[in-house]
Design brief:
There is one protein chain. Helix 9 packs parallel to helix 11, helix 10 packs antiparallel against helix 11 and helix 12 packs across helix 14. The protein starts with 8 loop residues before the first helix and ends in a 5-residue tail after the last helix. It has about 270 residues and is an all-alpha fold. The chain has 14 helices and no strands. About 75% of the residues lie in helices and about 0% in strands.
Length: about 270
């Protein structure tokens, strides 16, 4: 290991990860974690954390990430589990594998891995929230809300809570609770402004709630943040998280409907 935390790539990456992650910092995390070194436990942790950064780039549509990042993440998870299967450390690899399963549309396997991660580390709030997301993807929104709330109860960091708020907002949106979804999405955007999906779900929630003026204003603010979005691009982005569950298909249809009502061009 390096002589001091400031010289240690793993420690530097951990510090970045504990702060708010955006496209730029996530790319820096990946570069830091690509530097090998350390004992077996540190290497297992490094590879799992690297896999998380790689798959998050892909799921968030950051840094032009594509299928190659998914393949890298899968390989790094296998390396992490082989290096040190100790449950005290393996929770992070299971969490990473859950995200990979999500990207591959294997939502039952993803839910299993997030549950395993929370079993190995009951304090790991992200595992509960992401298990909740998988319950939504499997058509069980009430279970989703309960799990996400467990994550919220275990988390203190504002930027992590902002992601959980997004999950709450999207779940309520799919349940057609648009008025309830709106404040959750607003809070998510405050803490995580670098995500296309929390911003656009807010646009659509306004539209579906009948507040077209607010929907158009939110879409205008989104276009100032990231110009050139069309419904076709939104649908392309959703392919990083494939899902054929009828509940999800219908929720996304209403999401798209709201975007068009707010004035987003189809293509």
């Amino acid at each position: 290991m390096a002589d001091s935390p400031s010289d240690d790539p793993l420690a530097r990456a951990q510090k970045l990860y504990e702060n708010k992650v955006d496209p730029k910092s996530n790319l820096e995390i990946i570069k830091l974690l690509e530097q090998p070194g350390g004992d077996v436990a540190s290497e297992a942790y490094r590879m799992a954390q690297l896999a998380i950064a790689e798959i998050c780039d892909y799921l968030n549509r950051w840094n032009d990430a594509g299928p190659e990042e998914v393949a890298k993440a899968k390989a790094n998870i296998q390396t992490a589990l082989a290096a040190d299967p100790d449950p005290a450390l393996a929770y992070l690899a299971y969490y990473a594998r859950g995200l990979v399963h999500r990207a591959e549309g294997q939502h039952g396997y993803a839910r299993f891995d997030f549950a395993k991660a929370s079993q190995f580390n009951p304090a790991f709030a992200r595992a509960y929230a992401q298990k909740g997301a998988e319950n939504l993807y499997l058509g069980e929104p009430e279970k989703a809300l309960a799990d996400i709330l467990q994550g919220i109860a275990r988390e203190l960091r504002p930027h992590v809570l902002a992601m959980f708020y997004w999950l709450m907002g999207r779940t309520h949106f799919f349940m057609q609770n648009y008025e309830t979804a709106i404040p959750w999405l607003q809070q998510s955007i405050k803490g995580c402004p670098d995500l296309w999906y929390n911003r656009l779900y807010l646009v659509s929630a306004y539209a579906q709630a009948g507040d077209i003026d607010s929907a158009r204003q939110a879409l205008s603010e989104f276009n100032e943040w990231s110009a050139g979005y069309t419904l076709e691009r939104v649908i392309e982005n959703e392919k990083t998280n494939p899902n054929e569950n009828p509940f999800v298909v219908e929720g996304r249809r209403r999401f798209h409907e709201g975007l068009l009502a707010a004035g987003m061009p189809p293509a």
